[in-house]
Structures are given as C-alpha cells and as structure tokens.
Design a protein that fits this description.
69 residues, mainly beta, Glucose Permease (Domain IIA), 4-stranded antiparallel β-sheet, two-stranded antiparallel sheet, 0% helix
C-alpha cells in the first residue's frame, strides 16, 4: 500500500498506508492529481493516516524543509 513518485533532480516522495493506489508504475502524475486513497493499513494502525517521506539522492530528508504543513 505504498506509492512513490519520482520528481526532477533526484527527489522522490513516498506515500504509505494507502487503501487504494490510483496510479501504477510508470504512470505520469500531474500536480494536484490524486495518486492514492489514504487508508488504515499497517500492524499498529488504529485509524486512517498517511506516512509521508521525501528522499533526495537516496537519503531521507525532512519534508518540513520543503513543504509548509
């Protein structure tokens, strides 16, 4: 229940704990386009939630340095 999006400049965004994936490997994604439906997956999950990660050049980075939540 994971989807990864490859962006320009070696940046990857990762979305975990989805109930439904709306895009598949190799699909193009436009800004604002839905890619998944958040779900209640995972061993310790008690409610629907999203686990979001950003990776740059193979290293995890803090999303708050790039996105205002």
């Amino acid at each position: 229940h994971i989807i990864q999006v490859q962006h320009a400049h070696n940046l990857i965004s990762v979305y975990k704990h989805n109930s439904v994936l709306l895009k598949g490997e190799g699909d193009k994604v436009r800004a604002g386009e839905p890619i998944a439906i958040v779900g209640n997956t995972g061993e310790l999950s008690t409610a629907a939630h999203l686990h979001f990660e950003l990776w740059y050049n193979g290293n995890s980075i803090n999303p708050q340095e790039f996105i205002t939540f």
